[in-house]
Amino acid sequence: MLLPLEKLGIIERSLDDADARARYASITPAGKNLLQDATASIEMKLEDIMPEGSEAELEKFTELLEKINS
């Protein structure tokens, strides 16, 4: 599941120096950029889908997306 993301440069995997059994996956700068672009795209689409939604509702949803993003 992670190999395709690693090949695309979205994540990188590393070993734990203290425990050879443990593996870590972390998002790369390119992965963060991709996530930010996707979030911006989703926000624009939401504005089209939810025009009747209040500004406060849209702002709250955006805050939740940003929280997930961090």
Automatic annotation (TrEMBL):
Sequence ranges assigned to domain HTH marR-type in this UniProt record: 1-70
Domain of life: Bacteria
UniProt GO MF annotations: DNA-binding transcription factor activity
Protein name: HTH marR-type domain-containing protein
Species for this entry: Candidatus Falkowbacteria bacterium CG10_big_fil_rev_8_21_14_0_10_39_9
Organism lineage string: Bacteria, Candidatus Falkowiibacteriota
